[in-house]
Design brief:
The chain is an alpha/beta fold. 30% of the residues lie in helices and 13% in strands.
Length: 318
C-alpha cells in the first residue's frame, strides 16, 4: 500500500532536534569513484581530508557524549582518509556502534587490501552502495566495471562473516534511483535484491535501504542540464508525507565535516547550511548531547527526505 500523501506545505515545516543518537562524520571528499548522483561531488581528484587533530576531537566529543550510540563514517570514500582506522578503533573502544558507508570498490584500491578484514575484526557495520542488481544500471551511474568489482567486494565481506547466520557483522545495501524518481517500496525491492543477488552471485545481506536522490550539487546540475530540475522538485513537494517528519535523520543526528564544522545533516553540510542556521564547530561545544532541542536548519531540498515513504541514511521512514 502506498504511504499517505498530505497536502504540500508552502514552506518546509519547522523542526527541532530530539535526543541525539548518531554522530555522522564526513572525513573528506576523496573517492575512487565519481558517481552521477553524488551529492558530495566526491572523486579521485578531491583533496579535502580530515586532519588528525580533528579526528581526535571527534573521539573526545564522542567520549563526552554518552547518549550518542553510533559513529557514522562517510565521505567520499571514508577508508581513504589516513585517520579512518583510528576513528573506527577509537569509537569501538568506547563501546559505540560504527557504520562504514562503503562504496565497495575502494576495498581494492592500493593500500586497502586488509580494510575489509580490519572492519570485521573491529565489529564495524558496513553500509554498501549498490544502486541496482544489474551491471548495466550500476555501471551507467557509477562507472565502468563498478558492478563487477562491487560483487567481488560483497563476496569478500560475506567470506569474512558479514550477513552470515549467527554473525553479529551487519551488511546493508543502499539503493538510490537511477534518475529523478522516488524509490519503489523498500520491502518489495529488498525481496527482489535478495533473490537476484543470492541466486546469481551467492551474496547475502541484512537489509536494503532505499534513499531518494537529493536535488543538490552534482545531481542537481544534471537535472538542470536535462531541463528536469523544476519537475523533480515538484515531484518531491507534491509527495510530501507528514508522517515522515518524526523520523527524519536530522531529528537524532548531527553532521561534522572534514574541518570540524557542525551541520544538521550531510545534505545541509554540502550546501554549507550551518547548524540551526548558526555556525558552530566541534571546538565550540563540550558535549554533543547538549544539541537536543535545538532548531534544525531547513530548505527546499528537505522535501527529498519527506516524499513518499521518506528517506534517510537508514532508508525509508514509513
Amino acid at each position: 500500500m502506498a504511504p499517505p500523501v498530505h497536502p504540500a506545505p508552502v514552506a518546509f515545516p519547522a523542526l527541532r532536534r530530539g535526543a541525539l543518537a548518531t554522530l555522522q562524520v564526513n572525513v573528506g571528499r576523496r573517492c575512487d569513484l565519481a558517481c552521477h548522483h553524488c551529492h558530495v561531488e566526491a572523486g579521485p581528484k578531491r583533496t579535502e581530508s580530515m586532519a588528525a587533530r580533528t579526528a581526535e576531537r571527534v573521539l573526545a566529543l564522542l567520549a563526552a557524549s554518552p547518549g550518542i550510540e553510533v559513529l557514522d563514517l562517510t565521505g567520499g570514500a571514508p577508508e581513504l582518509n589516513p585517520h579512518f582506522r583510528a576513528l573506527v578503533a577509537g569509537a569501538r573502544a568506547l563501546g559505540r556502534r560504527v557504520i562504514d558507508r562503503c562504496n565497495l570498490t575502494v576495498l581494492f584500491e592500493p593500500g586497502q587490501a586488509d580494510t575489509a578484514a580490519f572492519l570485521a575484526a573491529q565489529g564495524a557495520d558496513v553500509v554498501a552502495s549498490l544502486p541496482c542488481y544489474t551491471a548495466d544500471n550500476v555501471d551507467a551511474q557509477r562507472g565502468r566495471r563498478v558492478f563487477a568489482r562491487s560483487i567481488e567486494a560483497l563476496r569478500l565481506l560475506n567470506r569474512l562473516g558479514y550477513a552470515q547466520p549467527g554473525s553479529p557483522l551487519a551488511l546493508d545495501l543502499v539503493y538510490n534511483p537511477l534518475g529523478p524518481t522516488l524509490p519503489p517500496p523498500q520491502a518489495e525491492l529488498e525481496a527482489r535484491y535478495r533473490v537476484e543477488l543470492r541466486e546469481r552471485f551467492g551474496i547475502e545481506f541484512r537489509r536494503l535501504l532505499t534513499i531518494t536522490n537529493m536535488p543538490i550539487k552534482r545531481f542537481a546540475r544534471a537535472l538542470e542540464r536535462e531541463g528536469r530540475a523544476s519537475a523533480y522538485m515538484a515531484l518531491l513537494v507534491s509527495h510530501f508525507n507528514e508522517s515522515t517528519l518524526d523520523g527524519v535523520m536530522c531529528r537524532s543526528l548531527v553532521s561534522v565535516d572534514w574541518e570540524g564544522r557542525l551541520y544538521d545533516c550531510d545534505f545541509n553540510q554540502m550546501l554549507e547550511l550551518p547548524l540551526g542556521a548558526e555556525a558552530r564547530t566541534i571546538w565550540d561545544v563540550d558535549r554533543l548531547d547538549a544539541l537536543a532541542g535545538a532548531p534544525i536548519a531547513t530548505a527546499p531540498h528537505c522535501f527529498g527526505c519527506t516524499a513518499g515513504a521518506g528517506s534517510s541514511c537508514g532508508g525509508a521512514l514509513v
